[in-house]
Amino acid sequence: MKNKFKYLKSFKILVVFVVLVLGLTACGTSSVENSKSSSGKSNKVVTINVAGYWGTSGGITTYDPLVIAQKLGYFKNIKIVDSSVPTGPQTLSALTSDRIQAAMLQYSIAASATAKGAKLKAVATAHGGKNDSNFHFYVPKDSSIHSPKDLIGKSVGGIQAGSTEYYAWVDWLKKGGVSPDDVKLVTVQKGTVFQVLEKKQLAGVGTWNDFEQKPVEESGKYRLLFTTYDVFPGDLNHCGLFLTQKFIDENPEAVKELVTGFVKVNNWLKKNPEKGKEMHIQLAKERHVDSSLVEKYYTVTDIRANCLVKKNDAQYFIDKLEEYNYIPKGKVKASDLYTNEFNPYASQGDK
């Protein structure tokens, strides 16, 4: 009888343990935990799964502000959880399905999704300015290609239809009297730009990634044909820190803390470049990836002051999508895509 009782007791403990584990590992929505302040008061801790910073380079990054902010102790009632979801289409689907709650996203992609019914909003400017996030398109140094007309009938890589660089690419071609239909776009895997250029199978290849741009430029074999900011307005920031409207409505205090910490850490990274570099090197090591690229290519991300969003960041891409008939005119407004209301410097920004 005693053995039976001991067996039942052990079984109950096992069941409780399994239930706890299942509860803690459930995914798909943001989770809420309870913590206690020093005064003993219970505080709601909101978990925010993030993406769009380091997934693109296999874990290597020189810009991971939310993770750095957490390491610096800027968040008390939110918990940032790393995600391997990369930037691009996967980021959008992960955000709209609530697998993640925050992501760096291009306004062009967000505007297109909003036209189809998604409700997303940038709560701060992420990286995406002329000095720190500029798409570079390269051709061989001895190439005969010097203008859009020289690309007619040729194949190029690294430009994805619907992404930010695509609209710059189309405008650049049109200014040179060339239709985008006259140049074939070929998919190139991220991280392979230098290798693709070396194979000489394409007329040219482009990339946003510092870790790809710098080795290409350092080789001395290739020259820059055009960049997105040869076409974009100089003060345009093409990426924002996006959340779903549902998450914003349900967690306004968490969003305020997130944006405040985001602004604070970006200002800290600007003022402390060496410490920022050290922290990103450590992040690479924690993720078990090669940190030598961070050591070699780390640069301070130059974000607009206090991460404020400007109306034109969104409006520029809405206008482009309408111009090329990707969305109906009047379907999306700039105010659908951004807000500065959670920014502690909101009074200095666009409404």
Automatic annotation (TrEMBL):
Keyword Signal: yes
Primary residence: periplasm
Keywords (A to Z) from UniProt: Signal
Pfam family, one: NMT1
Record-linked InterPro entries: SsuA/THI5
Domain SsuA/THI5-like: 65-275
Gene3D superfamilies, A to Z: Periplasmic binding protein-like II (3.40.190.10)
Compartment annotation: Periplasm
Family stated for the protein in its record: Belongs to the bacterial solute-binding protein SsuA/TauA family.
The protein, known as: ABC transporter substrate-binding protein
Organism: Clostridium aromativorans
